Amino acid sequence: MAEISKTSNFHVVMFPWLAVGHMTPFLQLANKLAERGCSTSLLLTDKAIQQLNHFNHHPCLIKFHSLVLPHVEDLPVGTQTASDIPIHLTHFLSIAMDRTRDQLEQVIRETKPKFIFYDMAHWVPQIAKPLGIKTINFVVVCAASIAIVTVPARNICKDMAIAEEELSEPPTGYPSSVVVLRRHEARLLTFVFQPFGEGITFYERICTGLRECDAIAIRTCRETEGKMCDYIESQYKKPVFLTGPLLDEPVNAPLEDRWVKWLSRYEPGSVVFCSFGSQCILEKSQFQELVLGLELSGFPFLVALKKPMGVSTIEEALPEGFEERVRGRGVVCGEWVQQVMFLDHPSVGCFVSHCGFGSMWESLMSNCQIVLVPQLGDQILNTRLLAEEIKVAMEVERDENGWFQKENLSKAIKTVMDKDGELGATVMKNHAKWRETLKNQRFMSNYVDKFIQNMRLIVRSSEATI
Length: 466
Known about the structure:
The chain is of the alpha/beta class and about 475 residues long.
């Protein structure tokens, strides 16, 4: 470690998409780089800086730069992150982000970095290349989502009906038969052909960013997605570096006292905890099926979800008589909770998740049984990875319209919580092996050490050609 720290005094600029699931791994990577001597300038809005500041473990080496989003018509005043708006308005947030180009250029002039890390800002290489600065496209979603949608082997028709059929068939050479989309799920990815910025679609933005960078970095590990990463590298014909999962060290902040008191009423491993992240908003009918499924499971449960569509409060969305029936064993709240600390609490034995990529890694690090109810395309691929490829979780069954029923959710929970049953015992055993691997300190640090070595190689290669 000491040798790496002495030779890794790179300065990098980071410019992530303004969503929690993107900003957080960028900061986590900055923390890991700082441990090895690298400094970082991280561009975020003021609200995002306030939200993430306490995760900056190396303030002497990691400096936040305040990003001011220009006014964009149809973007609500005061919007600073994707969590501030419904998902259908993120198109306008991307326009605002693109109009901060001059602010990024100013930070580059002031800090003179060796590298710029970005994801959604596909135009970053246009700035960096004339200045001799290397660019790394940092992918914070699963490698499968890149491999199945945006590789050059894929030439998807923009006609939605045709695109659905094409997306349900993996591209040429795709290396998995189970981490795939079913026909009725492919429609969840047709949003990639919608506008996402001025004169550009989401698909074009992602493909351009991957095509124009000097190297692709992916927040994953070879043990789970090695074949996917090799496939992406062969398709784009450029280096693909893996950072590992980039999980934070356990925090010392205690779980809120009210939750400690509530959880302490229950036996170890008996509580079901359900959370779908900071952006997921369910339709009211699916929200009701979810809470009714938890009730039907018979286990004590705590649900932390945003209020569903079309209601003013989360209480308004609850099924008739639900609160009276579950009083004393079930809680539904519409506020943010300390997810990692809930998963670490000994009373919690099952995690019902949407399988966002961050939640996926957190679930693998926990002792909880895992039940998955994905909502978006990349979450479906994460789910297939856990449930079908490495077999540490159970996916809730759905119909061809993508809807799940309370009975199917209840059945999945009961199955994984039955540790004497064949499936419950299998996923528990597999999960324990993965958790042991991920908790090994050298496992994490080896990935970051190798990542920095790869950064050095890019710099040396560039200098050798001058």
